[in-house]
Design brief:
Blueprint (H helix, E strand, L loop, with lengths): L7 E2 L3 H9 L3 H15 L16 E5 L9 E5 L8 H21 L11 E5 L8 E3 L4 E3 L14 H15 L7 H23 L9 E2 L14 E2 L8 E2 L3 E2 L15 H4 L5 H14 L7 H10 L9 H15 L4 H13 L6
Parallel strand pairs: 2-4, 4-6
Antiparallel strand pairs: 1-5, 2-3, 5-6, 7-8, 9-10
Helix pairs in contact: 1-2, 3-4, 3-5, 4-5, 5-7, 7-10, 8-9, 9-10
């Protein structure tokens, strides 16, 4: 299935709202651009013939808003003199590599979709997003955020919104939206772990490590290991993510808290991955991928429905190892979700 295109950005609106209220001009500008994209009716992209294997096209928006911009690097071409172009190219490749090698998936749609990305979007744009058919990266403002192409997990996160779009099609609000965001965090982290060949015990489980500029009191945008601890800065505020259902945040902002409450399923995945041990893409990642792609998850799934799907996926993949499904159930129980 293919869900309706939704702009999915890595920096939550409540972070930019706080900066904008303090008079941070790049945040004001970034919020306006995000709002314009969300309000726009995205025209379907021109048809591109799918071909098996990796096919990347990187464009330079030239600090303007029209997309995609000027093509500056295509598949197989040598690195260019622009670090953002090369980072984007490499990050798209790393994401493709994880999905191909670990899950046997041919690009984000499973059918060889070309991976398109635009860099240098806007001026001092404090975000990166998936708009339904391509990646878009800002340069950051240099004061709060750095270059958004520099974090491989950010790229994996945003492209995974495309995977969700082409599979379960999770709605982008409340618990389905929090699951949508969490799945992107999960596989964004796995992209980084796979590229670095880290196992679950040695991974940092941070989303956007290195994105915050020097002087900002924080280590990343989110922590799957310890939700709510990624940052605590006078300008950004304190990371509001809960790690347990008892602290679930009821809010009308952020599409019902999709970037906030994603901390709960994020932590469940972390608990499962570390309990199983070894490379997370070989254990917990396979279970999450099977649940997402196996038609077990409706578009309006809440946390309980997704938890049940992961238990069912574990039983199906490991029919002779019931302890694995039990470990999945236990991980969800530790964050206050009962698969039933």
């Amino acid at each position: 299935m293919t869900a309706a295109a939704t702009l999915c950005a890595i920096v939550p609106p409540y972070v930019l709202d706080r900066l904008a209220e303090a008079g941070h001009e790049p945040a004001v500008h970034s919020l306006a651009l995000d709002a314009a994209h969300r309000a726009a009716r995205l025209a379907p992209p021109p048809p591109v013939a799918a071909t098996p294997g990796l096919n990347r096209v990187i464009s330079d928006a030239g600090h303007t808003q029209p997309l995609p911009g000027r093509t500056v690097r295509t598949e197989g071409r040598a690195p260019v003199g622009d670090a953002s172009v090369n980072h984007a190219y490499d990050g798209l490749g790393a994401t493709f590599a994880l999905y191909s090698a670990a899950f046997g998936r041919d690009s984000i749609d499973g059918q060889g979709l070309r991976l398109d990305a635009s860099v240098h979007y806007g001026r001092h744009y404090d975000n990166a997003f998936w708009n339904g058919h391509q990646m878009v990266f800002g340069d950051g403002d240099g004061e709060i955020f750095g270059d958004f192409t520099a974090c491989i997990d950010v790229i994996g996160h945003e492209l995974t919104h495309g995977v969700t779009q082409f599979t379960a099609g999770l709605e982008y609000h409340d618990q389905p939206g929090a699951l949508n965001e969490s799945i992107s965090d999960v596989f964004g982290s796995l992209v980084k772990q796979y590229a670095l060949r880290q196992d679950a015990a040695t991974a940092d489980w941070l989303i956007g490590a290195g994105l915050l500029a020097p002087g900002v009191q924080g280590v990343a945008l989110r922590s799957m290991k310890a939700p709510g601890t990624a940052y605590d800065d006078p300008r950004l505020g304190k990371d509001p993510q809960p790690a347990h259902m008892r602290d679930y945040v009821q809010t009308d902002e952020d599409e019902g808290g999709v970037h906030i409450n994603s901390g709960i399923p994020n932590h469940a995945f972390y608990l499962l991955a570390t309990a199983l041990g070894g490379p997370a893409w070989e254990g917990a990642g396979l279970i999450w991928y099977d649940a997402l792609t196996g038609r077990r998850v409706p578009a309006d799934a809440d946390f309980t429905a997704f938890a049940r799907a992961t238990v069912a996926a574990a039983k199906a993949r490991y029919p002779d190892r019931s302890s694995i499904a039990d470990t999945v159930t236990a991980a969800w129980a530790q964050v206050g979700v009962s698969p039933g």
